[in-house]
Design brief:
The structure holds two protein chains of two kinds. By secondary structure, chain A is of the alpha+beta class. In chain A, 46% of the residues lie in helices and 18% in strands. In chain A, strands 1, 2, 3, 4, 5, 6, 7, 8 and 9 form a nine-stranded mixed beta sheet that branches. The C terminus of chain B is likely disordered. Classes of the chains: A alpha+beta, B alpha+beta. At the A-B interface, strand 4, strand 6, strand 7 and helix 9 of A face strand 7, helix 9 and strand 20 of B.
Chain lengths: 335, 718
Amino acid sequence: MMARAAARAALKKNMNDGIHFSISFQDLIFGLETYWSKQGCVIQQPYDVEVGAGTMHPETFFRVLGPNSYRVAYVQPSRRPADGRYGENPNRLYKHTQLQVILKPSPANIQDLYLDSLRALGINLREHDIRFEEDNWESPTLGAWGVGWQVLLDGLEITQFTYFQQSGGIDLDPVSCELTYGLERIAAFLQDVDSVFQLRWSRDTSYGDIRLPEEEQFSTYSFEWADARRTREMFDLCEKEAQAILAHRDRAAKSSSQRRAPILAAYDFCLKCSHLFNILDSRGAISTTERAALIARVRALSCQIARDYSVTNGWMESESGSDEVTSSRQDRKRQ
Amino acid sequence: MTDRASLVFEIGCEEIPAGLLAKAATELKAILEKHLEANRLLVAPVVTFAAPRRLAAISNAVLLAQTDEKKEVLGPPKSVAFDNVGQPTRAAESFSKKQGVPISSLYTTMTPRGEYLAARLIIRGKTARELLAEILTRAIRELSFPRSMCWTGKKGARFIRPVRWIVAVLDGKVIPFEFEGVASGNTTRGHRFLAHSKNIKITEPKDYLSRLRSNFVLADAPERRKKIEREIRSIAAKGKWRVHEDPALLETVTYLNEYPTVIRGDFDARYLELPWEIIVTVMRDHQKYFAVENRRNEIEPHFLAVINLDKGRAGLVRRGHEKVLRARLADAEFFWQSDQKRRLADYSEMLAHITFESRLGSYRDKTERMREIARKIARNWFDSGIHGADIGAADRAAQLAKCDLATEMVREFTELQGIMGGLYARSQGEDEDVAWAVYDHYKPVGTEDTVPRNLTGCAVSIADKLDSLAACFAVGIVPTGSSDPFGLRRAASGIIQILLEKNLSMSLSTAISSAAQTLGSHAPKIKVPVEVENKVLEFIGERAKYLFREKYGFAYDEVNAAMAASADDLVDVRNRILALRAIRYTENFEPLAVAFRRIRKILEKAGPDCGRAAAVDDALLRADAEQLLHREARSLAERASKHKRTGQYKEALEAISELRPTVDRFFDDVLVMDPDAAVRKNRLALLAGLLKEFSTIADFSEMAAEEKRDEPSKSLVR
């Protein structure tokens, strides 16, 4: 008992000195989830379709639309095929882990809430160089953009902080705040290791033990093995399926089955398209003109989905409805 | 003075992008002064400050209230206002009521339309307190930013980042108003983590900077800059280093920190094996660190970071920064090695996947066009006997120039484009001349930048820029106002700077034609009509005029005169400007210029074809003065053109100016517009011939008279 108390005291002293108790990767997740849970967030689970960023999780893409308040936090493993380095680069990963927080509407003390989350991890902010540097964010495939900062801790980018302005091509009202923590980087800072693969994931297991094979194999796949023709076919198929759902939904509009119309399923196929596009891209299989065209196709899906979702929920009038709505939408586009 | 009071205004904000702060402070000053002036409250200039979390304005003297205004209001005509016995009518009564002035105080006044009833009103001035609530709110709304945002909702206000507090104090008391749910007050906030108290009371301008300073915010940018410079110097001196100068970086860190402090960090000396360009770029662009050099101009394995704290505590911050830099340098080292697993030329395949512009093809297409144009330029120089012109080297350098766009290093650090290609080329044993040409081919990147160091680099740089200009103009991408996404102004200026600074004669029209032809014969095979070629020529000409004036310091009329004569070879233009400048203040020249302006006016008045094309008929020359002029002009023209052929423009101009007495005599003795049409026509032909003959070096009629000449140079100073 005494020993444990002494250890705790030593730990506390270390923290006060600014020397961090080396918390594990999973402790970091627990810490942030606990903190944001106390701020009233729903703690969600990662989405089970491949995504490139936490923003693509339906808990962000759909929740930021419409007027309803919402707070959510979740971990989202995010795949970026072009960033894969076969596990050889200490900081670059095919799949990295984001912790995403959405606060809707964004509260006036949002920066303080964010800084408190760092304090909750045991970071003494008076001892460190914290900085908010301009960094605006845009996702052409989601028709989404926002303004904000990257947050730097002693020169290390640890969080993307964004005031969401538009998603699925729709102006957001109210404005949501999105915080995206780069968990590997924060953990590497807290554990003071040079390579993410050296991170302690749990008490006894390293990040490398768990993730290295994935990095090696998926890098090989997306850079060398992915079959461009088949990948393109899969892209076309997923797009067709999404389009089919959306077309069917149009016919079902205003009927009693509207609530069951599977917009969410269409969105899954849109996400698959986005991921398949990323694979083609990392494979170097996309020509200049095709690139812009493919992005536009995914974007067309995501914008249609966002509109249909808004219509279903009564936040927007149906496209085939009054001319007034159509023209006001065009106005917005022009802006 | 009791009618004056001090004003403190601060917009407290979440971190404003560093690059926008300086301009915002200037704009805030202008907006406030404009509104204070318009409301008759301005006495002293407004002083503004900008730091990441605040834009502030103070004034030691604004008027506490507007002065009262006297005003006369006209009522009904006298005839309507009074009845025939001189008693006020109902019209007069209602006027009195409306203006709130008793009938006894009304009076009649004479106007151009007759006599009218009038009232004298005194309009009470409003107090500054009433007016400022409105003025300050408007100031926040009127500040303009690129990419502003909303934070309270679609209908809410827009600003660069959310406004979180407002200080608005007049004469020690709060000016109450609300902006986007934030109520104005008299407390500001200090440094996020170091401030002694959460709310810092500000009641007077003199407290503003000092109270913030004691709470670790330096609101005044020059004070922050000086602190950074002082600390950089002191740390560098200790290590016997010199900082790698970087004014843009200094400006950035000045506006990125509320309490900047410089700390030193080290990195592993093994990274010094990387080219210095990479080390400096990694440090500057990703981490905003200054590099240091030793006396031999070699990079030392240390860096200077500017942090937003009062000191680097317990070495923690330093360790953090060192670690981040280590990872960055490891990345760069990885790129440096992995990029070189292939030869630079092998990346040209991948350029097919990098778009230049959707209609203009990929960088691979651009490369092929650049090769063709660069070869032609180099051949031209070679044929003119210019030392160092090498067609093969120009072709090879153009072939390699864009390859680095496909390398990992340039994809990560775009500002290393060109430089990386040059470094890779050199380390892979390419010819030195070729490697430097690749390295330099984006130069000059601004009017202050140097031009490529060797002729091959100049050829590739010009080829690249000519292709961009011709190609973009061909598909309708033409710079307008502030929009110039392909940097075409810079491209045009770059061509001009290279030609002038390297003293390279080149026909612009021929070069543009060759770029246009290349675009037609190479992918994506776009036909460039002659009008487009002319537009490009005109565009470059306009840039040349601008540079001759603003960069090379020539008078605007000298430039216009020389370029009006011919603008195809800029080195030649410059020689002609120099000759013009040398001769313009001589006895004969100025009056001759006046005479030429007169000739031009006469010809313009006479109409476009009157006599211009016609040859002079000796038989019709009646007056002595015109015969003399005709003779003199012919012999002088011969002399002048002899000088011109050998490039002796000054001598040529001197010969021309000898014509002055003859021209003067002509105008004294001869009436051009003779009643006899044939004589008249012949005289006009004589003058037209004169103007044409002597305008090949410079169009003298463009020369401004003495007193007008200084006007545009004033705008230069500004």
